[in-house]
Each structure stands twice: as structure tokens, then as C-alpha cells.
Design goal:
With 434 residues, this protein is α/β, with parallel strands linked by helices. It has helices at residues 43-53, 59-62, 95-100, 120-133, 146-157, 173-181, 193-207, 217-233, 250-264, 284-290, 318-327, 337-349, 356-370, 392-399, 426-433; strands at 3-7, 15-17, 32-36, 91-93, 107-110, 138-142, 161-167, 185-189, 210-211, 241-245, 273-279, 331-335, 380-384. The chain binds ligand F0G. Ligand F0G binds at residues 118, 120, 143-147, 214, 245-251, 309-310, 312, 355, 357-358, 385-386.
Amino acid sequence: MHAHLVCFDPACRAQFDIREVLYNCPKCGGLLEADYDFSALDAPALKRLWRERRMDNAPLNQSGVWRYRELFPFLDDLQHVVTLREGNTPLLPAPRAAAYGGLRDITFKHQGFNPTGSFKDNGMTGGASQARLLGMKRVACVSTGNTSASMAAYASAGGLAPLIFIPNGNISYGKLAQALEYGAKTYQVEANFDQILALVRTLAERLGIYLLNSINPFRIEGQKSIVIEMMDQRDWRVPDWIVLPGGNLGNVSAFGKGLREMLAHGFIDKLPRLAVVQAEGSSPFYDYMAAKGSNPFTAQCHPKTLATAIKIGDPVSWPKAQFEIETTNGVVERASEQEIADAKATIGACGIGCEPASAATLAGIRKLTAAGVIDRDADVVAVLTGNLLKDPDYIYRYHTGQLTAPDGSPIAANFGNKPVLVENNAETLAALIG
Ligand code: F0G
């Protein structure tokens, strides 16, 4: 197999063995990526094979990630794969959300349909499988919630011991509950995501624990399957735009890499434009890209947003994200707490629903169509990254008019749907219902 780890920095491009336990380039400190010899790929034959696999009962072929394994051949022994039949997430049209977003049509690719309810499962099956191949016993991550839920599940399913580090009081109970139930040793640290990541990196090295944050290149390889499956579901018709929320910026990095590889090897005939949307109070990448390279990348020390999944001030993958946004002629947008909350309720009212971070997509689209960046007739796929039930507290507060932004200002229940308290009386109820 011709697979290597390669430094992402174009000035370095140092190569390392695919089985080395590395998270950064030992030569220059840059990010790493998996690189393959794809010269023998036969796109039309693989497209047919992948369709046939959908009808096959073998676990690897039922997985909406491993079905596409020829595009991320980093495992030379597939018996190490841990799969919970991840991927296979639907493309859902949503006319009401389209109208709200200023579009004629919109399609949501709903990653919340994954086994642990978020897109992290696509990547985690890759990272956990590599951990097993390497003979690791313990795996760790710092997380705003979804990575930890996913890692806990995949580690436990694969016989690895999961250790989770989370910012105390800053993740939703739905996600914390998953980590506990899936059996992860969970440490709630009095620090923010970025501070804990630095801590865990030191601990991982000292204690020989395998790190499964998105800095791990095999997570990124698995997450490529989101766009591969998306294209397969669309019969390889490339949309004009793919819109996704941005936090640590691993997902946009994975999308860009997957799309470039598909274009280079004849699976698709053009690149879509990528749009990343951040929460206004947690938008270091937006600020950096808006300055058009005139300022160095600057971390935000105190990111603030109720969309806790993307509450990250120092995203590790920003150099990859910048490259993918520039390569696809993409854009970066940001959305306020009110905009995210209203967009989320609109997605819910379509019968679809998602968690707050995911709704940043529609909030961003509304702004980008209003600004004339995205055309009303454009073919747009927005990726809903997490399930509605991840954060029920937020939902209840919004619909009952009790949601407040991190700065204490109220968030209006513009699309509120408050439950009605009634007495146990048929007459009153009949009069109320009408
Ligand atoms: N949406 C959701 C629901 C997320 O959980 C995350 C990240 C993102 C979007 C942003 O993706 O980091 O690749 O840019 N959650 C991570 C976690 C950080 O720990 O669960 P990104």
C-alpha cells in the first residue's frame, strides 16, 4: 500500500511512515495529512462497486464510510475497523428553510442521523480503527461534546479505553450523558476547549495515549466520506455551494481534501464553493479571513456562544481551512446568537431539526443570499452536523422565551412554540383548541 503521512505545509512536505504516532510535523510543527498513490484508481468502476456495496450485508459495505474505503486506504488490515454502521445520512429537501434562507431550494445533509448523532462518527470510525491497528490501549480527546460522545462509543465498541476531557459546565447534558453511558472516564476541567487541548496533548505524549481530536489525520480521512457519500447520493452532480459550521475547522479541511481528490481522479468535474459559518462570539477564522491576510491568525481567548459545539477560539486546523476556502473560491460568514436561534427553529419547523451549531448554516446562508454572494437559484447543500436532541435545554428555553445570550441579553422567541398549561377539563380544552 502506498500511504504516507505528509506535512501539510507546502514549504516542508516532509514524509513519514503511515504508522508513526504523530499529530504535527516533527520537522516544522505543521499539520499532517494522509497522502496516497491514487494512480490506479478507476472512477467509473469504483462508482459501480460502491453502488453494489449498498446492497451487501457485510458490515464494512453497510457503513456509509467504509463503503468508500478506496479513497482513504490508510489501513492495510481492515479487520481492525470499528464500525457502528455510521454514515448513510440522508439528503433532505426543506422548502420552508429555503424560503427563510433566501433560496429557491435547499438540501440538508443531516449528519445527526449518525449512530451517536453527529458527523464526528464519520471521522471517529477512522481514528479508532487506526488506534486499534497501532495496538493502542487508551484513547483521549478534548471536546465541546460531540467528539467525546463519538469517541466514547467507538472506543468502547472497539475494546479501547476512552478518556475524555471537557470544559466544565460548557457542554450540553445530552452529549455529556452519552460519554458517561458509553463508559468513558470523563474529566471536567476548569478551563476552555483550547486550554484543555494543550493540556491533553502533553498528557497523551507522556502517558502513551492516542489522541483522537481532529488534529489526528485519520479522523479527517474518515470525514472525507461525508462529501463522497453526498456526491454519490447526488449521482455525482456537484452542487454550487456546500455550507457548514466551523469550530476547530477539521470538517472543512476534510471536505476540501475529499473534494480535491475526487476532482483530481475523475469522480467529479468541478469543485463546489465551500462556505463556513462561525458563531459571532467565537469567530477567529472569520476575522482572519475578513482581514484578507493582512493580519496574522489571532486566537480568541474568551470565545462565547450558546452554540457550545463551536465555542472554540483557537482552531487548530485553520491553515488547512484557509487553503480549502481559497481553493474552492469559498467564503467565511458569521451569525449572531439570535440569527442562529431563529434559523434553528426554522429547521425544526421543517420537521428536520438540528443542534444550535448546525443551524449556523442556515443563518449564514440567509446573510449570504441577502448580500448577493449566494444566488437565489443556486444549488446549495447545507450540512447539519448534529442531532436536535443533543441540546434539548436550549430548545425549551428558546420556545418559552427564556433563552439569553452569553452577554445576558435576551434572545427573542421569534418562532417560539410555547407549551400551554391547561386544567384537566374537556370544556376548557375544546374551547382552547377550537
Ligand atoms: N457542528 C457540531 C455539532 C460540532 O460538534 C462541531 C465541532 C462543529 C460543528 C464544528 O466542526 O470543529 O470540524 O469545525 N465539535 C467538536 C467537538 C469541536 O469537540 O465535538 P469543526
